[in-house]
Each structure stands twice: as structure tokens, then as C-alpha cells.
Amino acid sequence: MTVSTKQKQRALARRHQRVRKTVKGTPERPRLAVFRSNKHIHAQVIDDVAGRTLAAASTVEADLKGAATGNKAAATQVGKRVGERAKAAGVARVVFDRGGFLYHGRVAAVADGAREAGLEF
Q1: Are 79 and 49 within 8 A, CB to CB?
Q2: Which of 19, 39, 43, 69 is most buried, judging by how many CB atoms fall within 10 Å of its CB?
Q3: What is the DSSP string of 13-77?
């Protein structure tokens, strides 16, 4: 029996809801949210209290789009960029939101890149 796309989407949404029950972004410690698709990876630093995105980076940006966008090297670059932009916005500590994805591969590479840029979590 195969698993349909709709079932996979529902399972991802359930996992993300379980993560979001405990992970909340505050002004002192915003949330570093990661989304990955088959081709791209996106990362945002979000203050959930104010409902604002403080910093963001993605492989769909013009200078990252030329090379491969769906691998760990690209994910590390996104992590470094979001870390640098968050530091510029005055954020030093974040809480990591893996978005329902396993902390492995590209998701872990984003976290490693953000740590290299100086974010603490």
C-alpha cells in the first residue's frame, strides 16, 4: 500500500503542530523556523509575540539560485546568511524550529551554518 501525497502532508502538519506546542519565539529569543522542499530550503527568524519576521534567507535568492539549491552545502549557506542577518538585527539567541522535519541532513546543515554565523541555540 502506498502513501499518498495528501497523507504525507497531513503527517508533516501533525509533526509540526507537536513541535510548535513547545517552541515559541519571544522578543528575547525568537524562533529560527526551517522549511525544506525538494528543490529549496528557507529559514526565518520570527518573533511570535509581535508576529514579525526579523531575518530570512532562502535558496531562491538570486545569488544562491545559480548553483545547486537542494543539497547540504546550499543549506549551510542559507544558515550562515540567516545567522548574519539575525545578528545584524540584534538577535544573538534563538530557539530552533525544525518544522516537523527530522533534524538530519539539510535541516541540520541550516542549524550548523547559523551556529557558525554566531547564533546560539
Answers
A1: no
A2: 43
A3: HHHHHHHHHH----SSS-EEEEEE-SS-EEEEEEETTTTEEEEEEETTSHHHHTS--SSHHHHHH
Q: Let me know how long the chain is.
A: 121
- Topology (CATH) of 5-116: Nucleotidyltransferase; domain 5 (3.30.420)
Buried b (16+ CB within 10 A) or exposed e, 50-64: eeeebbbbbbeeeeb
Domain map (residue ranges) of the chain: 5-116
CB half-sphere exposure, 106, CA atoms < 13 A = 22
pLDDT at 1 over 70: no
The grid coordinates listed for 102 are 527530522
* Predicted confidence (pLDDT) per residue in 91-113, tens digit: 999 999 999 999 999 999 999 99
